[in-house]
Amino acid sequence: MQIQPRETARDHMSPAWLWTVQAGSGALLLGLLTAHMIAQHYVADEGLRSYAEVIAWLRNPVVFTTELAFLVTVTWHALAGLRGIVADFGPSDRVERLVTRGLVVLGAATVGYGAWLLVTIAGNG
Amino acid sequence: MTGRRGVRGWLDPRGRHSGMWTLVAGRVAGIGLTCYLYAHLAVLSLLTRGPGTWDRFVAIAGHPAFLALDAVLVAGLLVHAAHGVRVALQGSGLLIGARRSLMVALAVVGVAVGLVAIVLLFN
Amino acid sequence: MNETTDGEAAIRVTVYRRRAGDTDPHYDDFDVPYRPGMTVLDILMSIRSHQDAELTFRHSCLHASCGTCGMRVNRRERLACVTPAGAPGDQVLIEPLAGAEVRSDLVVDMRPFYESLDAVGRPLLRGDEHNHDGHRLEDCIECSLCTSACPVTATDGRYAGPAVLAATERVLREPRGHDAAAVLERADREQGAWRCHLALECSQVCPAGVDPAGAIMRLRRDLLRRHLALHVHRARNGRRS
Lengths: 125, 123, 241
Hints:
The complex is a heterotrimer of chains A (125), B (123) and C (241).
Chain A: H1 15-42, H2 51-58, H3 61-87, H4 93-123
Chain B: H1 6-11, H2 18-44, H3 51-61, H4 64-91, H5 99-122
Helix pairs in contact in B: 2-4, 4-5
Chain C: E1 10-17, E2 26-33, H1 40-50, E3 70-73, E4 76-79, E5 91-95, E6 102-104, E7 107-108, H2 111-119, H3 145-149, H4 151-155, H5 162-173, H6 180-187, H7 201-205, H8 212-236
Parallel strand pairs in C: 1-5
Antiparallel strand pairs in C: 1-2, 3-4, 3-5, 6-7
């Protein structure tokens, strides 16, 4: 007997989808974070790249794209995880909606600010 | 009279087993890492102030106290990652019969990677 | 070492107390004479017989098959009837199950739990009722220890909980006339299988070896496969997912 989950109007926000994206973003972060840590913290002589090195590094389109992907992924993963923790404390539907909207705004602001930083830094020098 | 343990129950793993300990550790690390994300963005904003500001920060960041904080960061990342890998695999129905083995394997890998990362950090 | 007023070796017992109308619970201490082989249920019976006739708790079969005497002993979910009381000088903390409304002392309201199981068709067949080759189908005794031990039900009563999700997985494997589609849909909601964070406490405390955590993981595997199949089906038919 093959039973399919029922299609709903909010299927793109279904808990199965959210869980899968959270697990997938975590898997993605394993790679992105490892690359970020090695590139930014382990191969630099002083432990961190100098100002000139950071700018030269971020001007590489592959690095820029990877760091942007890292920013988006880590922000999603962190804030969706935070929402999950809040949800575990059984807030009212109203509070849960407010928290979700607040985190969406915070996430957008974080990605916006991070992207601005990347563009600004890569454009310096 | 709900008898719910509430927040205290979630934060109190006394009498509980390894799965609960990893959940609490993974979540505490996750909250810490989220805070770190914003601290990291704040630090990176120094790069917009020019080479002098950033390079002075780089000199300070090489201090052993800063490196100790980096070691805590690496530990938090590994704790969270190990818990996440377990939840992602078994939460998808994989390796259901190897719960303890997976937990032990992830702990061993996590400790090994952590030790190498921290040694490299201080060298 | 603890002793009773008669000088007997004793176990120091701290018991959660709360009666209807009490605003807050409190804990009472008792020194219970030690007897070799005594269980936590023996302790409670001794207290009620000799020290405090108003202490309330449930029990029935005395051999771990009815699931009635579930409670938390030293912060772990146990069946009092088969849990050793310890040795003379030990301290034992006894509290009601968590995640349920306390009716009186160690007695909690089990109706919401039973009603949740009813909602999925209560498919947990006990023992060898339909199988005589010694292979037991399902051993759940509906004691609710798993629900009490689960960290998610501890903080959020909306979560379906391990027993109900294990029952759901059982229905999907063998519907036996139950409405499997409706049961699946309930498990696929926000308060269903996706709230489990794999603390695995449910399986650790289960006195009957049912392994609700394993059932939840299998249920999620099924749900993921079905969602994937649904998306593939939609993609093949050129519809928006």
